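Chain A, query sequence.
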Amino acid sequence: MLTAFRALLLSLFIAVAVVAAWGGDEGATDRAAGPAIERVPLSGSLREMLEEVAAARKLEAPDDLMLVAVPPEDAVEVYTGLFDEEDREALQEGGALYQLLGYIQPDESYWDVTVSTAELWIGFYSFDDKTLWVVTEEEEINLDALSDQERETLAHEMVHAIQDHNFGLRRSGRRLAPTLDAGLAWTSVVEGDAVFSTALWRRLTSVRPAGGVAGPVLLLGNVSQAELDAQLLRAIVFPYYNGEIAVRNIATRGGMVALNALFAVPPPSTAHILHPELLRSRWLPESVGHLLPPEAILERLGSDWVEAESGVLGEFHLVNYLLGDRRGYPWADGSSPATVAAGEGWRGDAYRIFEQGEERVMVVVVRFETADDAGQFQAAHRRAVAPGESVVEWPYIFVTRSDGFVVARVAHVGRTVFFTIGTNREVARAALEAVEGR
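Chain A, predicted structure.
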């Protein structure tokens, strides 16, 4: 079964490009061999820029920061080489969760997506080396020769270095973000702060926005040309777009002191990021994991089945699952208000994944504020899977998706929804029979 930190690692693989090398021990060096690189300390105008960014963020600047210029043709190899052997193996072996949610294909792993998205990144920061990496055609980082986009990328990565210096990002991430949902919320604070603080620095220095576009495009400048599934694109953008909105909301009301407090006590869920007013409350998600007793589920599934993973999906991932392959980012353009609204009554959830050889099934329970909210989610779920082949075996409805996975649904009970996603109808039904009605 996945450890809490391993679950965090796997939940963050798509956002790790700008805060690289999450896993392993402090100072780990067992990385893949890559192109020869030269790290140089910041000096002159680059050091001045770091001090300017730190002043905008109102934090102390690190004095040991290093810098690397990465040729575009080496970017993928350099980036993937930052993962140590343990992390690479975990990413290569993992993928069940995102396969079942439809984010990736049944034969893809987290590592496949990590490699395929590596060419998108134009800058990243490594904990182990305390190093900024900027993808550029220039052989060295000459501030005057950088484009506006490269300068903003550098500023964004400097914010990460400043965060790490003041808050210890690796330690806080491992300690404070134990689930998929909490991990994405924590990443949203980290990335949202970097986008927000880069904008502050830009205003102070009168640097023009890269390409006239602000927000997530800054770090994801090539993402519009990427051949990625819509769900992955939304998951990549979320920490930058919604994270910035949440951070800006907190900083506007409470200043940098309030923003700094989010690094000590980060939001417990993506609901807090999607609804920043929750950040000013003491509301916590409901704990509903007890509604998915593993012993009862394993008894129904049969011998040789094992529990492989468990955690919390959260409002973002549930809505993103419902949106499926629909293009666009509805939190920004309002293109799918009904589907987005279907998650707004979210008050907690839990999932467990069970495996037997090539067979697997995910069991999900979601708790909503009201029965009407639960019904709204059920209606959106029905629409989301409607293109698939449907079979009714009362009281269950089974839908076979285009990727071969089978979704099993049952009528909600009060404000609680159960559903399963499995490799075939039999396992999806068995898992649902073990929990529905609890």
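The mean pLDDT is 85. The CA atoms of residues 318 and 413 lie 18 Å apart.
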